[in-house]
Amino acid sequence: MTLPIDEQRLWNRHMTMAQIGATPKGGVNRQALSPEDVRARQLLTAWARELGFTVSTDEVGNLFVRREGTDSNTAPVLTGSHLDSQPTGGKFDGAYGVLAGFEALQAIHETGVSTKRPLEVVAWVNEEGSRFQPGCTGSLIFSGKARLDDLLANEDPAGMKFGDALQDSLNALSDIERRPTGFEVDTYIEAHIEQGPRLEAEGLPIGIVTGIQGMHRYSVEVIGDEAHAGTAPLKTRKDALKAAAEMVAPLRRRWPMRRTQCASRLAASRSHQARRILCQAGYFSPSISATRYKRPLIA
Question: Which residues cross the membrane (predicted)?
Fold first, then answer.
């Protein structure tokens, strides 16, 4: 049987969802548990209820859309992804997995086909981790790899606690049924937009994931001395920013690009935050991550 997937309907839903948190460059800023994230969840909920699907959420705010099977006691087949984004995120990142799963659910529903197992689409909470750490919060708690109580006090850059933002989100979605956190799943599959150029460059419409990258992350503090940038002699300077910049080439040699992907994210120094343009940086705090799905290459 060929399912009547409606490509235009899926595209239209993407474009509607992308209006929530839209940025001038065509992406989205829909960070976890923000008002924009809540609106995205409310929109998905409205679409689901129009089709008669049930919607539920758990204590961490994961959102589930369910089409019942003939045996409601069996473990469901689950698909989905996330609706939150980076501050300058792409409109298909995460959202594609949720909306593609929803389109498949609707197409199955429209055929009138009965399935023994329930079919569910999930939107995980805080996958990106751009606002609250750690990322993948919803799936970590769902799978038992983390405890909600241990994360409630975590703060975003503005000082908002994760627990408070979560409660605000749950209050805004108070008309949605609450379910226990974590349940048996028969099968999980996730569709995702490619975050690199390889499929497009090779003219391939789809690829199958064969491995998931592991990641090593390092937080580094480079401590120097602040000094007047115009009068301090070069040979006496202890410039934290210069020292941090000089780390890049050795990192590339340690983790060559042919063997692993290595990315570094550098946070602004304290002197930069104060905008003291004639003062050399006395402190710089870079974070470094190396990713690869073969452990020996990032050890």
Answer: none
